Amino acid sequence: MRRFFSALVLALFAATAVAVPAQAHAELKSSNPASGATLDALPPQVELTFSDVISLPDGDAITITGPDGAKWPITQSAVVDKTITAKFDTTAAKAGPHTLAWKAVSEDGDLVQGTFAFTMNIAAPTSASEPPPSSVTMSAPVSNAPASTTSESGGVPAWLWIVVVLIVLVGVILLVRRRKPAA
Question: What's the pLDDT at 42?
Answer without folding.
Answer: 84
